[in-house]
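Batch manifest, entry 17 of 40.
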Amino acid sequence: MLILALDTTSRAGSLAIVRDGELMHATAGDPSLTHGQRLPLDFMRVCDGAGVKLRDIELFAVAAGPGSFTGLRVGIAAIQGLAIALDRRVVPVSTLEAVAASAPSDDTRIAAWIDAQRGEVYAQLWTRLAAASLAGDGSSQRVVEVSAAISASPEAVIESWSKAGLLDSLTFRGDGAVRYAERIRAAAGVGAVIAADTVPLAPAIGRIADAEPGRAIVPHAIMPIYVRRPDAELARSRREGTA
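Output type: structure tokens
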């Protein structure tokens, strides 16, 4: 199956073309431009890089959040438009799942952290399924959630996981882990394992969709995963005294 995957939850974002679980081509966006400015051309570029036409795409996949509220809405709307025009379905993928699925195969317990701004992170624990039980279906990308996604300060996240006995043998990954590495070590101990790099998420999003096409839905049914209320809603509630 030929899949186009899109992530617009970060400033740069990324796109990827995946065929039958194999990455054909991927591109990262230009962070100096907004997603709305560059997306039309980026769709053409990623298809050209893979040697396919947009009309050849059989399934779309998109990061459904959490992440940048504006970027999230732009990306979902763009994929909805393409999917409706081409009469295709869409697999929405949690950004936190994509972070975990992007980890190397020897990372078996992954703390996915995304920078949520305002001194907070979106955080969720994941574990990788044993490859032996997933032979032939994209096993290296298959992860399952251990905890619910939350939005809180780095210290509050670690305290919550510590109380639940979930801190053992974790690798912290994502731009939130990179940004708050020192605060992680201060709260979880100097031995905390923190990945020093971040990777574009679109390839993992595409592979997840390829491994689980049954998650595909009609375009208008996509629901953003916010985890916390958008800043605009919080500001409005404060003005109205209902926050």
